[in-house]
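BUG-261 | component: ligand-complex export | severity: low

The export step for uracil jobs runs without errors, but we want the raw record kept on the ticket for reference. Input record follows.
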Amino acid sequence: MSLMRIDRFISERSEYTRSEIKNLVGKKLVTADGTVIKKSDIKINSDTVKVIVNGNEIRNQKFRYIIINKPAGYVSSTSDSDGTSVMHLLPENLRTKDMFPAGRLDKDSLGLLLITNDGDLAHRILSPTRHVSKIYIVKLASPFKSEYINLFRNGLQLDNGEQCLPVDVKGAESSEKLAFIRLHEGKYHQVKRMFSAVGNHVEVLMRISVGSLVLPETLGFGEHMELLHKNVESLFSEPDFDHLCSKFSVNFSAKLINNRS
Ligand code: URA
């Protein structure tokens, strides 16, 4: 049995602050297992309790995993200091203080972004030693050249001399200016800088997978979806690059070019 104060239980799982909770308790708007709570420091069994605040049940789940299909124009951070945060794409009940984007997409980039409050999982995804793969589809300014395949596979050097790990890259069948690229690391603006190192330019970039977790085709730009805990481990397995590319070139290329926000 895990005993904890009810105000802490609520504040860790919602947007309410402790003083707001005290206020709601004073107004008899908080119940635990059907009993009206009279003091906000009362201890409850967090393993089994059902807490209702102002008519809404507080979900008793410690960690949450939300994926969004990020549109252009949002920054991958919890604050609005450098632009509108991706957190605004979530409904208020998911925008709790402890949620944050596990990873980064540039402001003008699109696609799969995980938002969670599970710090250990985020650390595992971002850890440079784990090399969790990320696959992107890009729209290039000039046609994809087959010579990129070996250049990228052999480990490209960026403009500032930084050395990249070997990368898989492949032109899409549906358009000569679309390509897929799989990275196992995450240097600053890496995809854009790699294509610029070979004399091309990335016009649109969309992340379509992290590990084996693939952006669902039904998830429109700006939409979100909650992952079941059992699906989270797929972040750490490796998808088949060729299979994913052939699946996505048809389905997503039109969307990528025509509908960016
Ligand atoms: N590489 C980039 O250049 N931008 C991103 O947003 C992600 C990877």
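Assignee comment: Attached the raw record above. Residues 241-258 form the longest helix (18 residues).
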